[in-house]
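Issue 218. Parser rejects a valid record. Input:
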Amino acid sequence: MKPSELFQRLRRSPRAILSVLLPLGLFLLGWWFGLPPAKHDEHDHDAESGQVWTCSMHPQIRQPGPGLCPICNMDLIPLSGGGGGGLREVSVSPESAALLDLRVAPVVREAAEAEVRLFGRIDYDERSMNTITSRVAGRLDRLFVDYTGAPVQKGDHLAEIYSPDLLVAQRELIEGRRAVDGLASGASAVVRDTRRRLLEAAREKLRLLQFTEQQIADIELSRQPQDHLTLYTPQAGIVTSKLASEGQYVKTGDPLFKIADLSTVWLKLEAYESDLQWLRYAQDLSFTVEALPGEVFHGRIAFIDPEIDPLRRVTRVRVNVDNAGLLLKPGMFAAAVARSKTAANGKVIDPSMAGKWVSPMHPEIVKDGPGQCDICGMDLVPAETLGFVTAAGTSGEPLLIPASAVLRTGKRAVVYVRLPDEDGPKFEGRQIVLGPRVGDRFVVAEGLEEGELVVTRGAFKLDSELQIRAKPSMMNPGAGLDEKPANSASKELAGQWSPVPRELGRLLREPSEKEIAALAALVRGIDSSALQDEEAALWKEFSSRLLNELAEAREDVAGNPAAAARGVARAVEEAGRYLGLPYQPEAPPPAEPATAKALKSAIAAYLPVAAALAGDDDGAAAKAAGAMAATLAASPLAEAPDLAALAQELASADGIKPRRASFQRLSDKLIALTREKGLDAVGNAYVVHCPMAFKNQGADWIADKPVVENPYFGDAMFSCGTVTDTLSVEKGGGE
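Output the parser choked on:
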């Protein structure tokens, strides 16, 4: 405010004059009586504001106020960010949470229960359909079954056919019978055998012409040929097609009738692509038909078409159904329900299939033990090999969240998680990987833990708040983010990240689920507790994105391994760009097994030396160094003599101070050798750096854990140091 404006305001308002003069008078009164100006305790202010102080050399030190580092006695500095929250965190007051009507629900781990509704129709069982053909050329003189749809029983008369060929075949039988009966008592065995074989051949010819055994016996007895042949029904069923008429001439092989046995029928259904994950061969399915209200039928899935209809995007599913009561008729429409309780690996949980053996061709054949199928004779297989398990515990239960908690944009899915906070409601947006939808819930493949609370109502409002604040959100995951200069990440992070590009190189060279799992273990094993707040928040965001991409790659690697590996490479590059980490894939040559084994033994002998020096135990250090020298003396490494000499020098040193100097030379040699010949092949091996060793010149050593136990200072500065490199991590371990 200008002086002229202040003067005009004071002239117009006496109250304004008081507002200026009263504080001035109090100040002068205090100065007159020598009262010191009021001070605010810095520590109180820091405590009230929540400011945290840390050491620039030892970021694991966190204190509520300024002071000296208990490790190196350096002045503490304010911790930037003041809290270490994630990039997607948003806090609201209890009143605002009530106005937003936010609702949460827990992430639960239980079997996913899906109910798939399918529609189709009843059809004939193709396996029970029989075509009756003419075995000889001739004339149909009589049809006993003269209309389509006629029910028949096995052995019923179908038709009579006249054929000259029948007379020839019967005369051969009669002559054969006479030849056998007319054998003289002195006939040779060869003659007897020949005539009997001719007679049997004549019989077999008539059998092939569909003469019954009784008919053949009657012809032999009467020795009178019949000029008509009666055709009999080979099975019970329904005549589905009448293909000839009475009086018609037919040729050999012409079809006459088609008969279908309705004691079993097929239920033909159509399933959408999204439903296929809940359907399995031999899975029980229930259905109803409109013609029989109240009746519920069951059958087992016998066939799932491997091809999807390119236009309608459905696939055919066939169910074998027992129809002993003949209630189901071909052409009936059916509404089916497949209820599936599925474990985390996609196998169907069905306790009724415990210990069962199933026919791989006829799913209705289920037995309590191994054996053969009663229909086709194939060996039965265990139900577990067909995708069934008897309990969720055998394969793990999936994580489930309400569908209303998910915000989706394309492939990305975001949920908001309620964070534990005593000051008020705090929420964090999180990108996750979704599995299939199960009713009104989703399976979560990556990104959440059991028991976490996800927002089921009001999540979009929280996301809008992040968008207003220019933070990463569902609609704009890159908001407020800037790429970091190359290799600008802290040593605490860069040292643990170093094996990631190497593992990425292996994944790109040979994409496989094993390499994806190894890379995921490396990312999960990185400890972010010592990172500064900004870097910790960035790591939380981009490590989550990388793990999500790895989870998706694990599902895709079997079908398209190259694309899955490229997706992981893009996620590693994204994390590297925003965190200042190297992201180009490396491909170190694989270590020779013998060399790796020898290096692993050398490091195992080295670790007790480091532990003894960290414990200020000079005698134990000398003894451990001597044991290391003995180990190296028998090592096949070409560099073993040099290492052994350094170990012996360390063992012979006069006092702990020169022993630590020898330990540095031994450590440098062993680290360089491991980098050259044993990367990722010697178990767990980390390089730890102490910047204050040897009058601030700094020194390195090897540890089998990413934990600082300083061998150069011992108890004086036991935790001084930082993990600056990871030489090797055991596959499957994060430590």
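Fixed in the parser; the record now loads. The CA atoms of residues 690 and 720 lie 6 Å apart.
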